[in-house]
């Protein structure tokens, strides 16, 4: 892996030299748009709305729209300076909070923090202390000319930096259907809890596969080898009429599956 940047993790009077790496990668199938007649790839051009003329990269500037059709222009240097306020690259931990206080909806992207050899001990101490206290550090960090709210948390022996949405970027769930005054009976909740208990287990990352990607890769292989492609029929979803009966049936089915696994 190549680091995105090298800087420092700072909390209190402690500064730890670190490098920032992407922790995830997308493996979604990538498709190019092609012309139907000859499968020639479609190329996108950057053209000016005024006259339709293609604009080279060196003649493109960034504009901030203040009113409809009215812009103020920013240079890359101005945007970068606004992003990190002209300071060094620092993960500036402001405070620590209990790990349960942060709703996962705030998390945006994950990065690994690797310590420099000179800061390895302080890094390990912080990582272990956070794990034992079940705390997360709330920080500010500039990545690619943008200031982010971020969380610093331990994952095994590594510190993970999670960039976060700012609070005013998280939408409220104002759905009218949730205000309908639906009556929920205790036996229905109890049955749902039994179903949840029957389906509760340990998270095993290896057990989860991207079936869509695997099917597309398999279809691509068949197309390359000239095999006939057969598209299976998609069954219509079954509408649940009686919730309680559906919960009972699900509980019995999962109970039988659990007993079978334990017997095996």
Overview of this protein structure:
By secondary structure, this protein is an alpha+beta fold. It is built from 5 helices and 9 strands. It has helices spanning 76-84, 120-133, 186-198, 211-224, 243-263, and strands at residues 5-11, 14-22, 62-67, 70-74, 90-98, 107-115, 135-143, 146-155, 158-164. The strands form 2 sheets. A 7-stranded mixed barrel has the order 1-2-6-9-8-7-5. Helix 3 runs parallel beside helix 5 (243-263). The radius of gyration is 26 Å and the shape is extended. The two termini are 42 Å apart.
Key descriptive features of the protein:
264 residues; two-stranded antiparallel sheet; 27% helix; extended; alpha+beta; 9 strands
Provide a quick synopsis of the model.
By secondary structure, the chain is of the alpha+beta class. Helices cover 27% and strands 27% of the residues.
Radius of gyration: 26 Å
Chain-averaged pLDDT: 87
Query: Which sequence of SSEs, written as H and E, runs from N to C?
Result: EEEEHEEHEEEHHH
Which structural class do the helices and strands define?
Answer: alpha+beta
Please report the distance between the alpha carbons of the first and last residues: 42 Å
Low-pLDDT ranges: none
The largest sheet is: 7 strands, mixed, barrel
Q: What is the topology, as strand order, of the major beta sheet?
A: 1-2-6-9-8-7-5
**Strand segment count:** 9
Shape: extended
- Number of DSSP helical runs: 5
Percent helix: 25-40%
Residue fraction in strands = 25-35%
